[in-house]
Design goal:
With about 150 residues, the protein is mainly α. Helices cover about 95% and strands about 0% of the residues. It contains two helices and no strands. The longest helix has about 140 residues. The protein starts with a helix and ends with a helix.
């Protein structure tokens, strides 16, 4: 009976050993898969890290471009404001010059009228002088009643 009980115990132990070996085999297989997946995951992690690094470089470049564009925009805005101020000043000066030109045209017309009046007056005075000179010459040539006496 002892043999039988030893055989039963042996069978139980062999069954436990078989169960434990199967569990061990399953765990070993799972561990191998995890280690294999770990290598694959490590590769994926490196790829993602490279993409992140690439994106960070691109982000730094874009920030730099943004800063440069912002600076250029600020400069151009200042220049545009300055040009608008100068344009307003030029337009104001243009309006003043146009007003002055209109006034000068009026003065020129008035001076032309004065010139014509002066020419007319000079012509009249010249004719009057000639007439007086002729009268004086005629008077000197013709005997006057006072001279006959």
């Amino acid at each position: 009976m002892k043999i039988r009980s030893f055989k039963n115990e042996l069978e139980k132990l062999q069954a436990q050993i078989s169960t434990k070996e199967a569990e061990h085999e399953a765990l070993a297989q799972e561990t191998a898969q995890l280690w294999g997946g770990l290598g694959e995951n490590s590769h994926k992690i490196r790829d993602v890290e490279m993409q992140i690094e690439s994106h960070l470089k691109r982000l730094a470049f874009l920030r730099s471009e943004y800063t440069n564009d912002k600076t250029a925009l600020r400069q151009n805005s200042g220049r545009l404001k300055n040009l608008n101020i100068r344009n307003e000043r030029f337009n104001s000066n243009l309006a003043e010059i146009e007003t002055s030109l209109i006034e000068l045209d009026k003065v020129q017309k008035d001076q032309k009228i004065q010139l014509k009046n002066l020419e007319y007056t000079i012509e009249r005075k010249t004719v009057q002088k000639e007439t007086v000179g002729k009268e004086i010459t005629d008077a000197e040539e013709s005997p006057t009643p006072l001279k006959r006496r």
